[in-house]
Amino acid sequence: MVLRSQLQDRLNKRHIETLSYATTLRVRLERELNALLYLNSGLGAYLVVRNSSMQASEIQDILAVLHRSSRHIRNFGVAVGYRLLYVYPLLGNERAIGLYYPDQPTQWPMIQKIAQSGLALLAGPVELVQGGRGLVYRMPLMLHGRYWGLLSTVIDSDSLFQAVQAESEDDRYEFAIRGRDGQGLTGGAVWGALGLFDQPEVLVQEMDVPGGRWAIAVRPRLADDTRSLRAWVRAASGGGGLLVATMLYMLVRNRGLMAHRAMYDDLTRLPNRRLFEDRALMAFSRQQRQPEQLCALLFLDLDDFKCVNDLHGHKAGDAVLMAVARRALAAVRQNDTVARWGGDELIVLLEHVSRDMLETIARRLRSAIQEAIDFEGRTLQVGVSIGVAIYPEDGSDLDQLLHAADGQMYGDKTARKNGPSRPAPLAE
Q1: CA dist list (Å): 366 to 216, 302, 359
Q2: Does the structure show a pLDDT above 80 at 269?
Q3: Which residues pair with 88 in a beta bridge?
Q4: Neighbours of 89 (CB within 10 A)
């Protein structure tokens, strides 16, 4: 028992140290990346303000100054409408001048999405023609709420991540980043080896990037693991505790799974309440900086779910929850968060959403979830009641928003019992 207690203390300390390093790494990466994005925001604002009176020479001078004073930036590009008119540095990029985005099949869908949504996106990393790899940050230039042009910035991803690595260097840890094109845990490699995400004792954190998320995996290096395990196995064997040594090995091996499960629901694979609360707080902070953009919650409660469990068993109930989770993810936008709040309740976090889009997403969720579910030759079906709360109109913190959304959800449930299905109401 003493041996087990000592090792548990050691593992707890190791986990806390790894968590501290991962958090420091994420904060430094966010700082380095945000410095580049804020620079682009300032440049974009200047271009919009000066749109009708700015000369080509003035644009080139501004781009040159910013390029010289910024780390990690390979080049800038400015499009008016959908035609690329300005590039800096020009050397090596002459052929890009005059490029018309609708004629570029690999780029046009993303450009179109940016123009229609008014939201910036961070894509890549991609292999650059000039060598190396780059992240491409595209920001729409909006004039009086309408698309006017596009600012594209190619960031030298190798330079960016090497700078973060040098600042955070600690030979006790290794790390990797995934989420190519903002795809988060399902995306391709951004930096390092994807295989690290599948290793034991790995700790995973997510961070927001424009248009999506990245996931960062950190773990103590294997060499250190081996030395630790051997020392503890020898100690356990010397005391006749081979079984204890085996159990301790399994504990270390499963540390990575434990870290992931702390943030995700085991059954549905959706973010759990803890992770949702973190994302909601970050979303509220972003909305305060951009008050013209709506931020909202949808609170979903399944109708007749208890009947499924009572009539068909809990295995059928689990199958329904997994199907509902998949359908909910498919019904929302890529950057929205769908989480399992508990039992048969889900919650959705929506940013940069209009009231019309909020209504549309609520209808899509209801339609998708109410579709019949096939389970072992049987047809199962549940309904869903939906409540809506908008930040900060319906509450200044998460608890107040949940109270408002919960009240609307029960109102929706009552109305559905007394009449035909209707879209979730919006707070006025």
Answers
A1: 33, 10, 11
A2: yes
A3: 76
A4: 14
Residues facing residue 189 across a β-bridge: 178
User: 178: which 2 tokens?
Assistant: 């995934």
CA distance 114 to 57: 27
- Reference 164, options 191, 136, 143, 134; nearest CA is 191
**Could you tell me if 363 and 259 are in contact, meaning their C-beta atoms sit under 8 angstroms apart?**
no
- Give the containing element (helix H, strand E) for 212: strand 212-220
pLDDT tens figures, 278-294: 788 878 877 887 777 78
- Closest by CA position to 37, among listed 164, 136, 148: 136
Is domain 33-154 in CATH 3.30.1370.100, yes or no? no
Residue 12: how many other CB atoms lie within 10 Å: 10
Q: Which CATH number fits domain 273-418: 3.30.70.270, 3.30.450.20, 3.90.470.20, 3.30.70.2330?
A: 3.30.70.270
pLDDT tens digits, 202-219: 888 888 888 899 999 998
